[in-house]
Design brief:
Layout: E1 12-13, E2 16-17, H1 21-49, H2 53-79, H3 90-103, H4 111-140, H5 143-178
Antiparallel strand pairs: 1-2
Helix pairs in contact: 1-2, 1-4, 2-5, 3-4, 4-5
Length: 179
């Protein structure tokens, strides 16, 4: 940093510096938008890859919920008087890359296990993102924004719970088949 800069951590964003909690919130909100939009694309692919009809239905249901998450995030931007603009989300890109690589390496009977593991990892990440956004929204005191973000996190938590239960069932079934 140059000598005329304020002390502290500076976050560069496309040549700009995030200088306020509001700007940081909007940036993180944009990353959440990118995250959800990326997940929409991934869910489409996973529905085609999944073997179990129940898993396929759950992925379809979560895709509908994810469309609602995108809409809620766009409403948050509007409530803040900001233009909905995605920001890079390297974590979700990494999860997507890891899942794609693993799907390419496993035998067919393990595809659903890989999908469920990826769903669980992704849901944990999404919940962490929403936890951070909600904490900041609570500090800003915007009840409408908090309500929209809470709606998203509640659906993510429910999806995580379902995915864990499905993974446990599949693990039991897989162990019985290989025993």
């Amino acid at each position: 940093m140059s000598g005329n800069r304020k002390k502290g951590v500076q976050v560069a964003v496309l040549g700009n510096t995030i200088e306020s909690p509001q700007e940081l919130f909007v940036h993180k909100l944009g990353a959440a938008l990118t995250m959800e939009e990326t997940i929409l694309d991934v869910l489409e692919k996973l529905q085609q890859e999944a073997h179990d009809p129940s898993l396929r239905r759950n992925l379809q249901q979560h895709q509908k919920e994810t469309r609602g998450h995108v809409q809620n995030l766009r409403q948050v931007f509007t409530a803040l008087g900001e233009k909905p603009e995605g920001q890079p989300c390297p974590a979700i890109e990494g999860l997507q890359k890891e899942g794609d690589q693993l799907l390419g390496k496993v035998d067919e009977p393990l595809v659903d296990s890989v999908i469920l593991a990826g769903v669980i990892e992704t849901e944990h990440h999404e919940i962490a993102v929403y936890d951070g956004l909600i904490i900041q929204a609570e500090r800003m005191g915007d009840d409408d924004v908090i309500a929209l973000l809470n709606e998203n996190i509640e659906e993510e938590e429910a999806t995580l719970k379902k995915a864990i239960a499905a993974a446990e069932q599949l693990a039991k079934k897989t162990v019985r088949q290989t025993a």
